[in-house]
Amino acid sequence: MTVFRIVVLFVLAAVAEIGGAWLIWQAVKEDRGWLFAVLGVMALGAYGFVAALQPDVNFGRVLAAYGGIFIAGSLAWGIIVDGFRPTVWDWVGSAVALVGAAIIILAPAAASSSAEPVA
């Protein structure tokens, strides 16, 4: 259940952050109006709360792993919403980022808890 929860929270965080940034982009770059910007700010705020619901207590680890999800999610958003056509390098980079995210967040408990916090 924990892996399922992690994945669902990462997907929700990606939709909130990428969607929020996209709404602000639309307001600024495409002159879609301030309502888009306000909704974008609200979505970005929601992203922060969703990210904080991750079961891992280490902020740095959660956000580092989320970075890979953000990369893949951004490409997916571009494909679905904006008609973006990724290059082979986009696909390879996204795959590498997802592998890195999986290594960070799914590391065995003993390996992830053995690191001493930096003072």
From TrEMBL:
Keywords: Cell membrane, Membrane, Transmembrane, Transmembrane helix. It is found in: Cell membrane. It holds the Pfam family UPF0060. It is a multi-pass membrane protein. The keyword rRNA processing does not apply. The chain crosses the membrane at residues 6-25, 34-53, 59-81, 88-111. NCBIfam families: PRK02237.1. Belongs to the UPF0060 family. This is YnfA family protein.
